[in-house]
Write a structure and sequence with these properties.
This protein is α/β, with parallel strands linked by helices and 365 residues long. It has 15 helices and eleven strands. The two termini are 28 Å apart.
Length: 365
């Protein structure tokens, strides 16, 4: 495929593997912060081409996976209301809450619909003025601009029957939370290229300086990951820290300024709870006060709903890079994509799903 195959070239991949082998002299532990990168590592086998001394740990880079379980229960409570049309992306509908998921709520009679864009939900609100249309807005900075624009458009159109259940999280505060933890294993980061395409990478520079750690903005194809890994390892071996950009074809230091302006107009930062990690200060978005009428959590008064994680799921340890999916006693037996205990087995970006789908069930990367 034009513009894609060139980043999957086997000969160039071997050249990067050889270069990595030449530069590495000691053990290192790297974290890819994006679940999409995790899936490319596993699917392409790039992780198995790396030297044994290079360990990959999989971070909290799947927005579906880090959505707290009580927020999923709140979405289900809203979806059970007869006046509501609940909308979201497909994988979010399958993520288990404390007892069930949104697809089962649909089977029980709730009006739950999969959409491909939050603007689809805005259109539903226009077409169904007598119903309340809710979009379950989950994601990192990558999807936040589209959700902000959906709220902005609903405001401009006077759609009082539209709202979002907001679960937006931000990458830099999560990286700082991981680096500041006493059990941190991460020595270098592969930063998520799509997040940086929106936000730029200037936010990462103080983190790299504070923790003296290399951060390399990296794309999503096999050669992107190999080059990003090489750049990170070279910085580590040379005892350098800072931010470098492998994904130059899509990312600039400043990012997408118009998208950032939309975000600033509709959202403000807030403390946010992450599934398996806990509350991280200033790590999420919420609607600004002038748009609070579009806040589904307030509109339907579900903010008091709380829930507990399954004691059999080690999603928190996996999302913090402390354990691999195959180290979970439930993996592949009591927890499968058809019957998941936690979100990392459901999501298209979940580490557990990647290990299950691509056969990495017995060895760590």
């Amino acid at each position: 495929m034009k513009y894609v195959d060139e980043y999957r070239d086997g000969e160039q991949a071997q050249q990067f593997v050889a270069a990595i082998g030449e530069v590495v002299t000691r053990p290192w532990s790297l974290m890819e912060i994006c679940g999409g990168q995790t899936h490319t590592f596993m699917k392409s086998g790039v992780d198995r081409l790396l030297p044994d001394s290079v360990g990959l740990v999989h971070g909290p880079g799947c927005p579906v996976c880090v959505t707290p379980i009580e927020l999923i229960d709140r979405a289900q409570a809203i979806a059970r209301r007869p006046e509501v049309i609940m909308t979201s992306f497909g994988d979010m509908l399958r993520v288990p809450g404390s007892t069930t998921d949104l697809l089962n709520v649909k089977a029980e009679g709730g009006d739950v619909r999969m959409v491909y864009s939050p603007l689809d939900a805005v259109r539903f609100a226009e077409q169904n003025r007598g119903r309340e249309v809710v979009f379950f807005a989950v994601g990192f900075e990558t999807t936040a601009p589209a959700n902000a624009m959906a709220v902005w458009q609903a405001s401009q159109k006077g759609l009082e029957n539209f709202s979002i259940l907001c679960s937006h999280v931000l990458v830099p505060p999560a990286m700082e939370a991981l680096l500041g933890a006493s059990d941190n294993l991460v020595q270098g980061f592969l930063a998520a290229g799509h997040v940086c395409a929106v936000m730029g990478y200037w936010e990462y520079e103080p983190i790299a300086e504070r923790y003296r750690i290399p951060i390399v903005v990296t794309g999503f194809e096999p050669l992107d990951l190999l080059q990003g890994t090489y750049m990170t390892l070279k910085m580590l071996e040379e005892e350098r820290w800072g931010v470098e950009n492998q994904y130059t074809r899509s990312v600039t230091r400043e990012g997408n300024r118009p998208a950032q302006e939309v975000l600033a107009r509709v959202f403000e930062t807030c403390d946010r709870k992450w599934r398996g990690i806990g509350e991280i200060p200033a790590s999420g978005y919420r609607l600004r006060s002038e748009f609070e009428s579009f806040d589904a959590e307030m509109k339907f008064d579900v903010g008091e709903i709380e829930a507990q994680e399954s004691p059999d799921c080690i999603a928190g340890e996996i999302l913090r890079g402390l354990k691999k999916p195959h180290q979970c006693s439930a993996f592949g037996e009591r927890c499968t994509p058809e019957h998941p205990l936690g979100a990392p087995m459901v999501s298209a970006e979940g580490a557990c799903a990647a290990y299950f789908l691509y056969g990495n069930r017995e060895q760590a990367s």
